[in-house]
TrEMBL record:
Protein name from the UniProt record: Cation/multidrug efflux pump
Record's GO cellular component terms: plasma membrane
Transmembrane portions of the chain: 12-32, 348-365, 372-392, 398-423, 443-465, 471-493, 537-554, 863-881, 888-912, 918-943, 964-983, 995-1018
Gene3D superfamilies on file: Multidrug efflux transporter AcrB pore domain (3.30.70.1440), Multidrug efflux transporter AcrB pore domain like (3.30.70.1320), Multidrug efflux transporter AcrB TolC docking domain, DN and DC subdomains (3.30.2090.10), Multidrug efflux transporter AcrB transmembrane domain (1.20.1640.10)
UniProt keyword terms in alphabetical order: Membrane, Transmembrane, Transmembrane helix
Organism superkingdom: Bacteria
InterPro entries attached to this UniProt entry: AcrB_DN_DC_subdom, Acrflvin-R
GO molecular function, one term: xenobiotic transmembrane transporter activity
Length: 1054
């Protein structure tokens, strides 16, 4: 017994099945997460090593090269990229999408532990997060007390509260400096006591210690033994005695007895100032022009962005109630707001699509009861799909919601076909139960064929790799689930409801007009089709020429990864000249801040000078929040152009504007164009990159051009005289350690704060006033065992001023330079990238190569994936249809509609001015499935009519007339479902419109050509196929056609 027969004969079972789908689907909807894009986990690990004072070249040789040597062998690794800056090395490990990141983390950690790094370098830290990702929120804190107190308070009372929030992965820090116990050594006092700074270093190493010393085991108790030699406060550390090599007679006298002078011991506090302070300030942050501390909340992959942001906002509200007087915390930047608005707007679009689809069905069916029967497919299919989305671990995002919006017009198609066929059998005089059984049985094959043909199109998505493959996967699973559930609904619930409620009832005036209109339209269509069937090759040839002509629209369309969305936020990355101090950069940025705050379209400005995770003092990140879109007269793109115009007034500023709506699609800088130049000679790369940028600028296609190559920072090179050093018995290591401790601020252990019980570094350094000029380096003393006294370093070495590298970038163990730029507004991103690659190939010598990275790489992968997906979809769909029709030729006839769906989509994009992008490409893949539905309806009826004994021409004419109404209904229902997203209403409309426009244009044009071209192609191809046994042509009679006419009755159903 078939499922449809079970539903008809056991209606309570069918009602319970339908109710359970909707009930549990509703529960699943309430539990679904929300995000702007599918929560795709970029398989990235980041290894960070800090080594204060180490320049990029030293880091490259001593830290990065040995780490890369072991890390590149980690299983599943795709790319290794290292960025080296003063004191910080970051190694980003990118894996293939199918790699288990937990296992990769463990393997990478084990590899790192096997590498021996310099003792002065901090231990490597490995993060299961891409630190290039932009935070979803930026918080800013200000206090009317000293900045040091603000950092201490945040460190003890604020930061951990946000890290404990489920879904928060890490916190980027703007204007932050770690707490340290600073030992500021006075060089003049050292010279007085004939000490070098290494004496203080050795004193701390030997006198400031705390080590476990075993345990004592008695007969009843056991005791652990710990040596408590660490100072517990700055005051205690200042009282640690040091060894004096100078004349003890100059020491302060504490008492005289027996003619002997007793001298008090010399303490660290006598030659240095000890304070509970901060590391050197290399970063600062400002909120609306005033100094503040900023916290960037990064979300862990796999967590709901909206929920994480909501929890953060709750914590902010709670903290503001408990903060000390004069301190406040504000949300200065919130990317989740746009995500929430855009997703909610897309949900509204889904509902509106369902309403418009219902109205279209009502206009065609001219019966409220019939319409209700059809649109029951919408809640059943959509709510059931929420259940699938929930168990697949998807979120409500652009791709899943757009799939549901477009599915609104598709899920009713099967119900329309089944209902129309049941009603037709009912009008033949059968009772409602028999009409439901016969009508469903007759249409079952066509319904299954049309549904499976759509599902087959998305099967190749499983073979598409990368982030685009994951996005397509969620879209495909969602729409296929909705369509398969609509098939279940059409073959079970629809016939069940027809068997229960289908009744003879006279049509009203409106229904009679609708039926009369379709009768006349069907007759006109049949009259037009007859001459076409007499000259099939003329129709086929002319249609083919029109299709080929439409392909000329391809080069005229702009191509890009995704349309720029007006998210109401702009991220600027600004650079001042290489070598600029923190204060100079802050001064330059202040003028830009003042300009932005004076603009009516700007709401908030949050600035972080010095970057994050070891950024340079000549760079700044500016997070600009615009006023709501309805309250400003300029778009985000126009605002960005005005800002660029202002920046150009200062020749020392370079700016890169990040499109935050696309930043999540890559793991790099976020620019529209990113190219990695690789080669053996770094100097050649430097010159060639400058030439490439110059030639790109001449094209007028790009803005915000820059590279990550930074050269020209001032360096002081200390050149030792080895012979003099050897004669004085001074080693190179001793000189290096002396300079490193005095200038570099070396870490000399840790101490535990007596109040907050936390461990902080102890750092030794000269007082700031004694290391502000290059000559201060050689004014240090180094101990000479030969002379028995300190020797001025200027006797053993001299200084040279030079220019060095600020940043070194490596890719797969080779030095590289990344060139990045934004495409000028109004310029095709694809054409601009092709032009840039062409320039690179012309400029780079043999042995050097260029590779797209970031968004450029994602764009290439996406446009490479679509042809493969379309091709594989074509093959899979052909195999499915060939198996269903048991014919090699009928699928060819069905596929005739596909080229015209492409024609319609290209024409729609061209006329509306939209680009060919990720979303419009998904629309074309979808068209591969839905454009075949009408052809399947026709070919199936043609075959059925021929099997009943009709001649070829009779079968074609009759099938075309009978199937005209369901074809128009299903096509217009699909178009109706796509109208709301095509209207471009609300946040996120920029990505919804291209997909909807493609579907509307493709379905409309394909439907028109299907009605005329498919019958002609069928007439031609069927002659090549052997006639099935038992079929012989019969004469066409009016009675035969009337018997099968779909609109013979004017009665409805109640």
């Amino acid at each position: 017994m078939r499922l449809s027969e079970i539903s008809i004969r056991r209606p309570v079972f069918a009602w319970m099945l339908m109710t359970s789908l909707m009930f549990f689907g509703g529960i699943a909807y309430l539990r679904l997460g929300v995000s702007q894009l599918p929560d795709v986990t970029f398989p990235v690990l980041t290894v960070v090593v800090t080594w204060p004072g180490a320049d990029p070249t030293v880091l490259e040789h001593e830290v990065v090269d040995p780490l890369e040597e072991v890390l590149i062998s980690v299983h599943g690794i795709k790319n290794v990229e290292s960025t080296l800056r003063q004191g910080v090395a970051r190694i980003k490990l990118e894996f293939y999408m199918d790699r288990d990141m937990d296992a990769a983390l463990q393997e990478a950690y084990a590899k790192i532990q096997s590498v021996k790094l310099p003792t002065d370098a901090d231990r490597p830290r490995i993060y299961k997060i891409n630190q290039d990702e932009n935070p979803i929120l930026w918080l800013s804190l200000a206090w009317d007390r000293p900045y040091k107190d603000l950092i201490r308070y945040v460190d003890l009372n604020v930061r951990d509260k946000f890290l404990l929030i489920p879904g928060v992965g890490d916190i980027q820090l703007g204007g932050w400096a770690d707490r340290n116990l600073r030992v500021w050594v006075d060089r003049e006092k050292l010279n007085r006591w004939q000490l070098s700074i290494l004496d203080i270093q050795n004193t701390l190493a030997s006198q400031h210690v705390q080590v476990p010393s075993g345990y004592l085991e008695g007969s009843e108790n056991e005791y652990s033994v710990r040596f408590m030699g660490e100072a517990r406060s700055p005051q205690e550390l200042a009282q640690i005695p040091i060894t004096v090599r100078g004349d003890i007679s100059t020491l302060p006298v504490t008492g005289v007895g027996g003619g002997v002078v007793w001298s008090a011991p010399l303490h660290i506090g006598d030659v240095a100032q000890v304070e509970d302070g901060l590391m050197d300030m290399r970063r600062l942050s400002r909120r609306d022009g005033k100094q503040a501390l900023s916290l960037g909340i990064q979300k862990l992959r796999g967590y709901n962005e909206i929920e994480v942001a909501h929890r953060v906002r709750q914590v902010v509200q709670e903290l503001n109630k408990t903060l000390p007087p004069g301190m406040d915390i504000k949300i200065s930047y919130d990317a989740s707001r746009f995500t929430e608005l855009a997703v909610r707007e897309t949900e509204f679009t889904v509902v509106l699509s369902g309403i418009i689809t219902a109205v279209v069905c009502l206009l065609f069916l001219a019966s409220i009861n019939s319409t209700l029967n059809v649109i029951f497919a919408i809640p059943t299919s959509i709510l059931g799909t929420f259940l699938v989305i929930y168990f697949m671990g998807f979120t409500l995002n652009y791709f899943t919601l757009l799939a549901l919006s477009l599915a609104m017009g598709i899920v009713v198609d099967d119900a329309i076909m089944v209902l129309e066929n049941i009603v037709r059998h009912f009008h033949m005089g059968k009772n409602s139960t028999q009409a439901a059984l016969d009508g469903t049985g007759q249409i079952r094959f066509a319904a299954m064929a049309t549904t499976l043909s759509i599902v087959a199109v998305f099967a190749p998505v499983l073979f598409v790799g990368g982030v685009i493959g994951r996005f397509l996967f969620q879209f495909g699973i969602t729409i296929c689930s909705a369509i398969l559930l609509s098939l279940l609904e059409a073959l079970t619930f629809t016939p069940m409801r027809c068997a229960q409620f289908l009744r003879h009832a006279p049509d009203g005036a409106f229904a009679k007009r609708v039926h009369g209109l379709f009768d006349r339209f069907a007759q006109a269509y049949a009259r037009l089709l007859q001459p076409c069937l007499k000259h099939p090759w003329l129709i086929i040839t002319s249609s083919g020429i029109l299709f080929l002509f439409s392909l000329t629209l391809f080069p005229k369309l702009h191509t890009e990864l995704a349309p720029t969305q007006d998210v109401g936020m702009i991220l600027l990355r600004v650079h001042t000249p290489v070598g600029s101090s923190l204060q100079y950069t802050a001064q330059k940025i202040k003028a830009l801040e003042d300009f932005l705050r004076a603009q009516p379209y700007v709401d908030k400005v949050l600035t972080a000078v010095g970057g994050y995770y070891g950024g340079e003092t000549n760079e700044a990140n500016m997070f600009i929040t615009l006023v709501p879109r309805e309250k400003r007269t300029v778009t985000q793109t126009e605002a960005m152009e005005r800002i660029r115009t202002e920046v150009k007034k200062d020749k020392e500023l370079r700016v890169l504007a990040i499109d935050l709506s696309q930043a999540a699609l890559s793991t790099k800088h976020g620019a529209n164009l990113e190219l990695s130049l690789q080669g053996s000679d770094y100097e050649v790369l430097r010159h060639k990159s400058q030439e490439i940028m110059r030639r790109m600028e001449q094209t007028g296609l790009f803005v915000d051009m820059d590279t990550d190559f930074r050269y020209g920072v001032s360096e002081v090179h200390l050149i030792p005289d080895r012979e003099k050093a050897n004669l004085s018995n001074v080693s190179m290591l001793s000189i290096a350690q002396t300079v490193g401790s005095a200038i570099g601020g070396m870490r000399q252990g840790q101490y535990t704060h007596e109040q907050d019980i936390r461990r902080y570094d102890v750092r030794l350094r000269l007082v700031p006033s004694q290391w502000s000029h290059p000559e201060d380096v050689v004014r240090l003393n180094v101990w000479s065992a030969y002379a028995g006294e300190p020797i001025p370093l200027q006797k053993l070495a001299h200084i040279e001023l030079a220019r060095g590298l600020v940043t070194v970038t490596r890719e797969n163990r080779r030095r590289a330079i990344t060139l990045y730029a934004n495409v000028k507004p109004g310029v095709s991103q694809g054409k601009a990238m092709d032009r840039a690659l062409h320039i690179c190939q012309e400029v780079l010598p043999a042995g050097y190569q260029v590779r797209p990275t970031g968004i450029s790489q994602t764009t290439q992968e996406s446009f490479a994936a679509f042809p493969m997906t379309l091709g594989l979809g074509f093959v899979v769909a052909y195999m499915v249809l060939a198996a269903q029709f048991n014919s090699f030729l009928h699928p060819v006839t069905i596929f005739v509609a596909l080229p015209f769906s492409l024609t319609g989509s290209l024409l729609a994009l061209y006329l509306t001015g939209h680009s060919l992008n990720l979303y419009s490409g998904i629309g074309m893949i979808l068209l591969m499935g839905i454009a075949k539905k009408n052809s399947i309806l026709l070919v199936d009826f043609f075959n059925t009519s021929r099997a009943q004994g009709f001649s070829l021409e009779q079968a074609i004419l009759q099938g075309a007339r009978v199937r005209l109404r369901p074809i128009l209904m299903t096509s217009l229902a699909t178009v109706a479902g796509a109208i709301p997203p095509a209207l471009g209403l609300g946040p996120g409309a920029e990505v919804r419109v291209p997909l909807a426009v493609v579907v509307i244009g493709g379905v409309s044009v394909a439907t028109f050509f299907t009605l005329f071209v498919v019958p002609c192609v069928y007439r031609v191809l069927v002659r090549w196929e052997r006639r099935p046994p038992g079929i012989s042509p019969i004469e066409e009679t009016p009675e035969a056609l009337e018997h099968e006419d779909f609109a013979a009755s004017s009665e409805g159903w109640d």
